[in-house]
Design goal:
The complex is a heterodimer of chains A (474) and B (493). Helices cover 76% and strands 1% of the residues of chain A. Chain A has 474 residues and is mainly alpha-helical. In chain B, strands 1-2 form a two-stranded antiparallel sheet. The longest helix of chain B is centred in the last third of the chain and has 32 residues, at 323-354. Chain B starts with a helix and ends with a helix. The chains are: A mainly alpha (474), B mainly alpha (493).
């Protein structure tokens, strides 16, 4: 008995989700439908436990024929993803409460999260690909969860088409990589990879597949439409959890598997990040729909995150993971407000928020904090996040001029975040949105997000903790 | 230890303001916080005097706690004479700004929280020794201004607020790149943000030359360096009175103070290399600001453009690099802070009564408001450098210090700067003549009243400051000079 427990312990986060998914499915098939609210609270609790287990009894473990590896770092990454999902689930309260497919929503959400967990722990490309698909396909269904709206189906369709295209590239890349090295395990590949035309081609295909998922320019074209069409909750999940998981995976690949390729991918990353920041900024300037706006804002943020990849392994990966923690809190501040407003009034345009402060001061402050944090303004955590990203990227003096250019783009991004603030604090006319009642779970999520935005920066222990985890791995 | 209270007191004030429900206590709490803060500053001053030996300009009363250990970032604060002078200035202006806004009716709680947050940023900036900490506080002192202008401002407020913040954040981005690059280029791969430690090491000359423009422009934008001064007029004129006072009185000093630290601790060799450019830009700024002021029709715009001219003196003093000129630069920061704050306060008081700031639409106001008119005149006279008031001592010190540089071109710049004082006299006297003197307008139902008690207090506090700097500058010099001598030693070692 003890032996089996020992064997299962490394999978505790995955197992929790897996069991929950199956229970939900069984309930859906056989059971009487339980009360909606009751189920949602259980799901929230489950996610919270998943977050906490990431800090309990984590060590190094390898399993499933050495395809699965648990490290304190990956356990922390999983906790970050679970935390984001927990907050999103809290924020979805108002929307889900009367949704007829609430249980399916959680089945898909948890399945997607499970896929990401597998991806993060994979040490073999097959297992990795399994996780990737498990995380992607439920997302396409989730994007369609506004059952009555055509736009939602359009979003789902666009998502699945671009995701499968990306997967195709990725698979081709994987098979080429297998051709190059004769192995699918990460360690084996890292040992056998030599820089030549074929392996670079394989790398480019593989890399492109991943870049699609985090919508780096020029692979970003699906993002805005999908973000706009999908329900806000799903958009939040796409923009925070899905992106974070791929970025964590990228760290693993770039810093470990493709370490010998550093010269090659440094240049690629530099060009891509400059493109991403410029295009993301330019398009964000004139968006009217708040979700579309957030789509371009998140594209720009990805550009800034890529800066850290140019740095040294430890500082770079710590900066990325730390920034994702910050990004999660700040983005969810904003998405929480949008979700609540959308669920109550159905309004999603930035101009609808005119005079928002007059009627909903609390929500306005939450929104403001989130925007300021994304713009990188102290004392919010976004300032520290941006600072550390750029600080680690600049370590290589060759990139100094380019990164200076990228840093000046912060000014442009600040401009459009402030544009929203200007609208929110508009005083000349009456507010368009009446006072909104905030349900308890949503309130809780706001408190967590706001606390996160403030504490994650000034409280240095979060960064220090991440750094210590990263230094053990990289 | 006591230095930390400079940060704790505003934070506590903000916390209390956040927690109280009854808005009628907002103003007393904000005022009490700022007065306690002044007492803390005086406490810091006394303790500094007790522990400092006068030939030593080193940072004293230090607190050093590790903040982000992997990146060697510390919470490291301390004071020298210059910082104490700036702290005193900040404390006075914050009290005056809170008093001036006593009748603020709109969203009081938010207003005073933002004002205190600004003060928090400024205090932190003036005592920071760690560069990261300094940058952190500098940024904190930027964004509340945006909200202050946006919510409580007047005129083209959204435009002005955005312009101000974008320019300042753009400057910060450059500054940040400078700091980050410095961090990686220290000898022996030391990687520290500690200014004192960086001052001890010899940064390679090439590094200094490369980094100086980044940091110089970064701080320069804050202190209205020509040609990056364009945020000043718009920002100041759109801001509410307290906001303008804060902007001109404290925010523009952040840049000047930062430049001094930059010159003294970080890249002294580059400062010498770039001195001619600094002086050129400063001289252009002084003259341009003065001429631009002459054609302004709006009182706030007038004062904002004159700030560009006056802040040029700070830059001139820093560019000259002689001890007297540097001392003058610090004095000018204090003098300009007090004087413009008073000017803006007086303009705000006049505006709240006449509902116009256009010079031509007012005349003979002195009859109705002798006290406010008096403040206006005194601020104007301080601005044009009347002996006995602060402007005279400060600008004279800068000019005398500049003349000590025997280079012809520098002397031309000095003459240009001195000539600007005449232009200042023209616009100040003309404004006083039109607005206060002359035939009084007839008012039917809303005859302008004179200052209320809070306005009298606000004006008096600032005016006493101006007198102290003007009549007994040696009190400040006692604080400033040792620190300046210390700079002298670092630059020419």
């Amino acid at each position: 008995m003890h032996y089996y427990l020992h064997l299962l312990l490394p999978f505790k986060q995955e197992l929790l989700l897996l069991i929950a998914v199956f229970i939900l499915l069984l309930v859906q098939i056989f059971g009487n439908k339980p009360q909606q609210e009751w189920t949602m609270q259980w799901m929230n609790l489950l996610l919270l436990i998943t977050v906490l287990t990431g800090f309990w009894q984590v060590g190094y473990a390898t399993d499933v024929s050495a395809m699965f590896q648990l490290t304190p770092f990956s356990a922390f990454e999983k906790s970050v993803l679970a935390l984001a999902t927990y907050l999103i689930s809290l924020q979805a309260y108002k929307w889900l409460l009367h949704h007829e497919h609430m249980i399916e929503f959680y089945v898909l959400l948890l399945a997607s999260l499970l896929g990401m967990f597998c991806m993060l722990s994979a040490t073999n490309l097959l297992f990795f690909y399994l996780g990737l698909e498990l995380s992607t396909i439920p997302l396409a269904i989730l994007a369609n969860f506004h059952l009555q709206q055509k736009q939602s189906s359009e979003a789902a369709f666009k998502f699945i088409v671009s995701a499968s295209f990306a997967s195709a590239l990725l698979l081709l890349g994987i098979s080429f990589l297998y051709g190059c090295t004769g192995t699918l395990s990460f360690n084996g590949m890292a040992d056998h990879l030599v820089v030549n035309t074929f392996s670079i081609l394989a790398f480019v295909l593989f890399f492109t597949g991943l870049l699609f998922k985090i919508s780096v320019v020029p692979f970003h074209l699906w993002t805005a439409d999908v973000y706009q069409g999908a329900p806000v909750t799903v958009t939040a999940f796409l923009s925070v959890v899905s992106k974070a998981s791929i970025l964590f995976v990228l760290l693993n690949f770039l810093f470990k598997v493709f370490h010998s390729f550093a010269q090659v991918w440094h240049v690629m990353v530099l060009i891509l990040l400059l493109l991403t920041i410029i295009i993301g900024n330019l398009f964000a300037l004139r968006q009217q729909n708040f979700k579309r706006f957030m789509a371009f804002s998140s594209i720009t943020q990805i550009g800034f995150i890529l800066i850290a990849l140019l740095g040294q392994n430890m500082a770079g990966s710590a900066a990325v993971v730390y920034f994702m923690v910050v990004y999660l809190f700040s983005n969810l501040c904003i998405f929480g407000v949008i979700a609540l407003v959308a669920a109550t009034t159905g309004k999603e345009n930035i101009d609808d928020f005119k005079g928002f402060y007059q009627t909903n001061p609390f929500l306005a402050w939450v929104l403001l904090l989130g925007l300021f944090s994304l713009a990188g303004i102290p004392p919010t955590a976004g300032f520290f996040g941006k600072f550390f990203l750029i600080l680690s990227g600049i370590q290589n003096a060759r990139y100094f001029p380019w990164i200076t250019f990228a840093a000046l783009n912060l000014m442009v991004s600040l401009y459009y975040y402030l544009r929203v603030v200007v609208v929110v604090f508009h005083r000349e006319s009456a507010a368009e949105i009446a006072t909104i009642h905030i349900p308890q779970p949503v309130k809780l999520s706001f408190f967590i997000c706001v606390a996160g935005v403030i504490i994650a920066g000034v409280g240095s222990w979060i960064y220090t903790y991440i750094y210590s985890l990263a230094s053990a791995v990289f | 230890m006591i230095v930390n209270f400079l940060l704790i007191v505003p934070l506590l004030t903000i916390l209390v303001l956040l927690l109280i429900q009854n808005t009628q206590y907002t103003k007393p709490i904000a005022l009490a916080g700022s007065v306690i803060q002044l007492m803390v500053v005086i406490g810091v001053l006394l303790q500094y005097l007790a522990v400092s030996s006068f030939n030593n300009g080193a940072m004293l009363l230090q607190t050093d706690v590790v903040w982000f250990s992997p990146l060697h970032i510390h919470y490291h604060v301390g004071v020298d004479g210059i910082s104490i002078v700036m702290l005193l200035l900040t404390a006075l202006i914050v009290i005056a700004a809170i008093l001036v806004s006593w009748k603020e009716a709109l969203l009081q709680k938010e207003f005073f929280i933002l004002l205190t947050l600004l003060a928090f940023g400024a205090y932190g900036f003036f005592i920071a020794i760690d560069l990261f900490l300094m940058f952190f506080f500098l940024e904190i002192a930027v964004v509340p201004k945006f909200l202050l202008i946006l919510i409580w401002g007047s005129g083209k407020k959204a435009y002005s607020a955005t312009k101000l913040v974008l320019m300042l954040i753009g400057a910060s981005a450059l500054l940040f790149m400078g700091i980050a690059c410095l961090y990686y280029n220290e000898p022996d791969g030391l990687q520290t943000f500690n200014m004192l430690q960086i001052a001890q090491m010899q940064l390679p000359y090439a590094v200094q030359i490369t980094l100086f423009p980044f940091m110089f422009i970064g701080f320069g934008v804050f202190t209205a360096l020509f040609p990056f001064h364009t945020w000043v007029p718009d920002g100041h004129s759109a801001a509410p009175t307290a906001g303008s006072m804060f902007l001109a009185g404290i925010s523009m000093k952040l840049g000047g103070y930062g430049l001094l630290r930059l010159v003294m601790f970080l890249v002294p060799a580059a400062a010498q290399f770039y001195a001619p450019y600094i002086i050129l830009l400063a001289a252009i700024g002084i003259l341009y600001g003065a001429f631009a002021t002459m054609v302004q029709k709006d009182l706030k715009y007038m004062n904002a453009y004159s700030s560009i001219s006056h802040c040029g003196f700070v830059l001139l003093g820093i560019g000259m690099l002689t001890p007297v000129a540097l001392t003058g630069a610090v004095l000018q920061m204090v003098s300009h802070g007090l004087m413009t704050a008073l000017f803006f306060a007086a303009i705000g008081m006049i505006y709240s009564r006449t509902h116009t700031r256009i010079i031509k639409e007012m005349s003979g106001l002195l009859v109705y408001m002798p006290f406010i008119g008096g403040l206006f005149i005194l601020a104007g006279l301080a601005s044009l450098g009347l002996p006995g008031l602060s402007g005279f001592t400060a600008e004279m010190t800068v000019l005398v210090g500049s003349w000590q540089q025997p280079v012809t071109a520098y002397r031309v710049a000095t003459i240009v700067a001195a000539a600007s004082i005449v232009i200042t006299a023209v616009y100040v006297l003309r404004a006083i003549g039109t607005v206060l003197m002359g035939k009084s307008k007839e008012y039917h139902d809303d005859t302008p009243t004179d200052a209320r008690w809070y306005e009298k207090w606000a004006g008096s506090i600032l005016f006493i400051g101006i007198l102290v700097v003007g009549i007994t500058p040696f009190l400040l010099l006692k604080l400033i000079s040792p620190a300046i001598l210390y700079i002298q030693q670092t630059i020419f070692k």
